[in-house]
């Protein structure tokens, strides 16, 4: 064999080897279906086969990496695996595995533009029985994220929508058992926030209604909650950058987001943010209106009165459900049934801050204030400093989180039991 022939054969050999390596490299990902149940095993199996030392990269809220498992209308099961390559200008990828016998076999890989996954939602929003995939992606340091919505068509993913958002929600807003997409978008020029309501129609996913919230989003929360026993509503709660809380409520009527009138206004504005909740635990949400007590000298965000309102049957009015006082010493006290605007609350601190006291009085125009009762708050140290006798003579409401709460009352109406039943220590995480 002459030298040039040898070289030719060697060349062909190398080419075949490259082709072979390439083929092996392009081998479709495949994993035993039982392995999918063990997330750690799955991760290590996938890690072995992903390129560029890539890693499974779940959205932040999905810390444990719950597999995104979904089905189409024909009953084909699929699993979505988001992963991130460490060295690439297109680091994000979605891999779709399809169930085939005892195996999950790679169906396709979709490269995506962006730095990290923000949210992935898998839900049928077109109503055809097959799930769609909504992939939200963080782009650079911007708070605006990119969104791709995919649907399965003829066995592969097709893009249904490309959009952007600050926040994304999918829920069945109009109670027709099909999910809708809601995107929140901030407009820094107009200094406002837009809520866009999408629905799938005639093969397209498009905005069918949008409403503008007057404030620029700083921190926002959208909730779908019961606003009366039969109807869910969309509650939009914003915290503005000067810490104010702004709350708006919408009900979905046909194609419209109908903004409800809240005490003659489009929204409830509070001096700071307190989240709406079901305050009386009857399944229907209430909305907070914060008031500073007239007797309180300092206007800060740690001592206030909250009036909780619910909507009436035809959503035309707010009705008062409960009033409560919230104190900076970490407790709340429900108002008594006969308490109205005539209640004045005063807060006294002694100089070294060892004892704080809150006095509840009732006043009517032209009349003298009538003291109802007081709540003294001792630090544990100052409590221990007292003599045993004086400690034993006190009416203790509760001891909690380094404080002792003591009732001071001579009036039989405000006895220890009635105060205890209205008193609660706040969980530090609350609000
Ligand atoms: Ca669908
Ligand atoms: Ca719906
Ligand atoms: Ca309620």
Molecular structure report:
- This protein has helices spanning 3-26, 39-49, 380-385, 388-392, 416-420; strands spanning 30-32, 55-56, 68-71, 77-84, 92-100, 103-112, 116-123, 132-138, 145-153, 156-165, 167-171, 180-187, 192-201, 204-213, 219-228, 231-239, 245-253, 256-259, 268-270, 287-291, 304-311, 318-327, 331-334, 343-349, 355-362, 370-379, 395-400, 403-408, 423-425.
- It is mainly β.
- Among the domains are: 26-165, Lipocalin (Beta Barrel), CATH 2.40.128; 339-431, no CATH class.
- The strands form 6 sheets. Strands 1, 2, 3, 4, 5 and 6 form a 6-stranded antiparallel beta sheet that branches. Strands 15, 16, 17, 18 and 19 form a 5-stranded antiparallel beta sheet that branches.
- The protein is elongated.
- It starts with a helix and ends in a 6-residue tail after the last strand.
- The mean pLDDT is 85.
- The site of one calcium ion has 7 residues, from loops.
In short:
This protein is mainly beta. It has helices spanning about 5-25, 40-50, 380-385, 390, 415-420; strands at about 30, 55, 70, 75-85, 90-100, 105-110, 115-125, 130-140, 145-155, 155-165, 165-170, 180-185, 190-200, 205-215, 220-230, 230-240, 245-255, 255-260, 270, 285-290, 305-310, 320-325, 330-335, 345-350, 355-360, 370-380, 395-400, 405-410, 425. Among the domains are: about 25-165, Lipocalin (Beta Barrel), CATH 2.40.128; about 340-430, no CATH class.
Described by the principal axes of the CA atoms, the overall outline is elongated
Query: Average pLDDT, to the nearest integer?
Result: 85
Distance between the termini: 85 Å
- Name the helicity range: 10-25%
């Amino acid at each position: 064999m002459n030298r040039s022939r040898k070289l030719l054969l060697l060349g062909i050999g190398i080419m075949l080897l490259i082709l072979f390596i390439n083929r092996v490299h392009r081998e479709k990902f495949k994993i035993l279906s039982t392995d999918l149940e063990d997330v750690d095993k799955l991760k290590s199996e996938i890690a072995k086969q992903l390129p560029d030392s890539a890693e499974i990269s779940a959205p932040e809220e999905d810390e444990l990496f719950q597999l995104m498992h979904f089905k189409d209308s024909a009953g084909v099961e699929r699993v979505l695996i988001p992963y991130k390559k460490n060295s690439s200008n297109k680091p994000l990828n979605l891999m779709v595995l399809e169930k085939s016998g005892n195996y999950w076999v790679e169906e396709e890989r979709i490269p995506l533009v962006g730095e990290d996954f923000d949210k992935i939602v898998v839900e049928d929003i077109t109503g055809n029985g097959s799930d769609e995939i909504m992939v939200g992606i963080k782009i650079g340091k911007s708070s605006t994220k990119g969104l791709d919505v995919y649907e399965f068509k003829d066995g592969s993913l097709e893009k249904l929508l490309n959009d952007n958002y600050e926040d994304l929600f999918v829920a069945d807003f109009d109670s027709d058992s099909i999910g809708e997409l809601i995107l929140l978008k901030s407009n820094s020029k107009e200094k406002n926030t837009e809520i866009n309501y999408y629905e799938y129609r005639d093969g397209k996913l498009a905005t069918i209604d949008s409403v503008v919230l007057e404030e620029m989003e700083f921190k926002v929360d959208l909730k779908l909650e019961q606003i009366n026993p039969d109807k869910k509503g969309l509650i939009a709660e914003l915290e503005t950058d000067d810490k104010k809380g702004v709350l708006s409520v919408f009900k979905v009527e046909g194609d419209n987001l109908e903004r409800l009138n809240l005490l003659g206004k489009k929204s409830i504005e509070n001096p700071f943010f307190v989240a709406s909740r079901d305050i009386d635990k009857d399944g229907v949400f209430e909305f907070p209106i914060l008031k500073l007590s007239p007797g309180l000298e300092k206007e800060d965000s740690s001592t206030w009165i909250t009036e909780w309102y619910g909507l009436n049957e035809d959503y035309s009015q707010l009705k008062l459900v409960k009033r409560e006082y919230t104190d900076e010493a970490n407790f709340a006290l429900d108002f008594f049934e006969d308490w109205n605007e005539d209640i004045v609350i005063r807060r006294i601190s002694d100089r070294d801050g060892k004892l704080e006291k809150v006095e509840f009085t009732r006043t009517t125009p032209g009349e003298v204030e009538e003291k109802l009762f007081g709540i003294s708050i001792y630090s544990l140290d100052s409590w221990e400093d007292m003599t045993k006798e004086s400690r034993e003579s006190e009416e203790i409401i509760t001891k909690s989180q380094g404080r002792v709460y003591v009732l001071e009352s001579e009036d039989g109406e405000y006895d220890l039991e009635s105060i205890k039943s209205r008193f609660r220590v706040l969980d530090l995480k609350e609000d």
